[in-house]
């Protein structure tokens, strides 16, 4: 393989070699190492190329918060904040911002194109209580919210990728450090809305908040009324009356939605 890579490179193909052992093999097989992009200590670079966030980068994110110009983003940056993690095409945030003018709404979405479209809609609708940021919420949530001058009052996570078998998709689902950041930053009494049309996903999200919430996360008061829940404790209706695009798609297909609302308590 090292000899083949050398031949490809000499014929104009760009090759990238990561790791000390792989680099040694390529050096032995190549007449000239200059035809390759060689990184002997490539473990960190390989993680970045795969789209992963390095632990050191995540730690720096907490030390050096990402400051947004909240005064320019929102008409009143001291209103309680509602954050939708994985906001997708932004329809949920746009509808909520129209209905609830006393709150500010922030969508965090990793897809740049979807964020650009959502921001264009914000401008077209002249909404001053809604905004979107292109980011990986798992690593940036704490940093972004730390600079907000008001209180974080609501967080929603809706229909994350349900593929448990593909490691790349599994990585994109809810992770413990995001749970910890949300629980740390949300105000006491604040609500966490979780839902999915895949029961296993909803169960996992709920269990991770209860597990990694440091004993500060409890079932919300919405679940005290048995008329609003099914026999397994899932909320029958969307408590906010606004459907995300995927939620509406699932309902139109006759699929059930598994919803739960959690609250942050001062202590248990």
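Q: What amino acid sequence fits the structure above?
A:
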């Amino acid at each position: 393989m090292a000899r083949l890579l050398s031949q490809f490179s000499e014929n104009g193909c760009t090759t990238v070699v990561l790791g000390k052992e792989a680099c040694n093999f390529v050096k032995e097989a190549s007449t000239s190492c200059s035809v390759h992009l060689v990184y002997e200590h490539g473990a960190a670079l390989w993680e970045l190329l795969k789209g992963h966030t390095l632990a050191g980068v995540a730690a720096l994110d907490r030390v050096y918060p990402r400051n947004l110009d909240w005064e320019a983003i929102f008409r009143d940056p001291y209103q309680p904040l509602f954050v939708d993690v994985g906001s997708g095409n932004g329809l949920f945030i746009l509808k909520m911002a129209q209905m609830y003018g006393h709150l500010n709404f922030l969508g965090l979405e990793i897809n740049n194109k979807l964020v650009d479209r959502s921001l264009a809609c914000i401008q077209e609708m002249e909404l001053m209580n809604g905004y979107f940021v292109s980011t990986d919420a798992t690593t940036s949530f704490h940093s972004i919210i730390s600079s907000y001058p008001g209180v974080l009052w609501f967080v929603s996570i809706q229909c994350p990728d349900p593929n448990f078998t593909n490691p790349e998709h599994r990585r994109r689902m809810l992770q413990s450090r995001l749970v910890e950041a949300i629980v740390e930053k949300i105000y006491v009494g604040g609500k966490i809305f979780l839902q999915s049309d895949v029961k296993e996903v909803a169960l996992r999200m709920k269990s991770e908040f209860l597990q990694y919430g440091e004993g500060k996360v409890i079932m919300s008061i919405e679940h005290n009324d048995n008329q609003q829940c099914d026999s397994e404790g899932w909320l029958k209706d969307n408590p906010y009356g606004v459907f995300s695009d995927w939620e509406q798609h699932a309902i139109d297909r006759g699929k059930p939605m598994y919803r739960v609302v959690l609250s942050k308590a001062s202590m248990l």
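Q: And what stands out in the fold?
A: Residues 167-172 have pLDDT under 50 and may be disordered.
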